[in-house]
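note to self: the first set is below, dont mix up w the second
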Amino acid sequence: MDNNITVENQETPLLETTLVPETVKRTLIQTAISQTFQSTAHLANLLPTGSVLAFQVLSPIFTNHGACDPMSRGLTATLVALCGLSCFLLSFTDSFTDGDGNVCYGFATINGLRVMDGSINLPPEIAAKYKLRFTDFMHAFMSIMVFAAVTLFNEDVVNCFYPSPTDEIKELLTMLPVGLGVVFSGLFVVFPTQRHGIGFPVTTIDLL
């Protein structure tokens, strides 16, 4: 009797083997969609996370998933404008750590860094390290352009403003965000910033 049980257990595996279907070759459209999502993810890394998150969360709601009426179209335009303005202004923010190890944020001015909450006054020689530079305005402009590319990658926003685009508009909406992403992503690499502002990735923060 024990031998029969052993034979039955050997014939019936405990875990069934799941057959995985063979990989299907992607079509050109599927490949383009995949590259679009990857490009959007890379571009979003160059922008303040809060602005991008707010745009991605609210855009499907404001656009009604692309089916806009005049009111939702106005709300969507306001959302895009506010998020773009946020990307611009946050490019002028920077951060540092105080003596207790707390991270403090401030706005860069021509005289140095102005701490937002006013909890600490930086010595003039240290504040001067954070003063406005020409590259700050370049990065602010590039942030708006990159955000424009991310916006044009958003199908709901595009369908909201161009529900029935012509062939020329379709071609433009396909090439323009890719061109903006390539050009301004390259400029970000050529002209790197040393600032660690609000919402941007933090690598090294100067210690006082």
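second set (the one i keep forgetting abt)
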Amino acid sequence: MQTEARVRVVEGGGSPHKLVAHHQRSAQHHQSQIGAVSQLIAGGVAGAVSKTCTAPLARLTILFQVQGMHSDASTLKKASIWREASRIVSEEGFRAFWKGNLVTIVHRLPYSSISFYSFERYKNMLQLMSGVEAHETSFGADVFVRLAGGGLAGITAASATYPLDLVRTRLSAQTNVNYYRGIWHALRTISKEEGILGLYKGLGACLLGVGPNLAISFSVYDTARSYWQLQRPDDSTVIVSLACGSLSGIASSTVSFPLDLVRRRMQLEGAGGRAPVYRKGVFGTFGHILRAEGIRGLYRGILPEYYKVVPSIGIVFMTYEKLKQVLSGIDAC
């Protein structure tokens, strides 16, 4: 979700004063170079490539996030990135860093497609409702439309593909014993043991985090990029976008990480036949973690998440832009 949001910002982010008009003209011209289907393909493939390259860090993040569910205090104090990575290699093998990556790719492709498609539809709808025309250059109205459109697109995509996100978490969280043998086995087992609603555990925390996450991503990226371009207009747009995108990723991850951790914990409720740990919904789970583990417990796994943000943004940006160039050439032919 975060990554795709930033890709959209890279492609269509606005800037104050004269930069807004210039960027909108550039974006409209660029959009004419590539069809909607090609754009969706580029976004989906870029997301899948990025997730595959950063899968080891993503799995470490998930393992740290869920440690407090069934671990005692002494175990938590000994946790470190190097110790956990060494354990994975020695007990599960190097390939285990990519455990659950297939379902991540299966999830990422439709998620990206739905995000891009619904973002454009929501943006056009909001422009009509607010009376803002596509060619107008009102900075405040443009930011509002993009923030609201991005938030609604994120909610739509997250709701439609959430069961795959839950399965990915459960597959990634497995260590020595593989209770779930694959995507379809996990979907069938969860539906049978926990009911259809079991596939949507933690959805509330996910939806609560989508809006703020995208809002922070959009505003931090847009503000930093606009200021940079005003101060150093001759700098490479690639460097500017990567640096500002990384900054927005760190900011949004910091703010939304507690909700993401709550979502992961709720996704693992009842997994593998274990007794439920949290029984009072999103806010009850939040309070339980806060009481049992303190503020630090809500940020368990934030370090590998930070390490993941910068390469993830860079890979998505470069893959997305390169694929758009290739696909635009195919469309032209």
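remember for set 2: Residues 1-33 have pLDDT under 50 and may be disordered.
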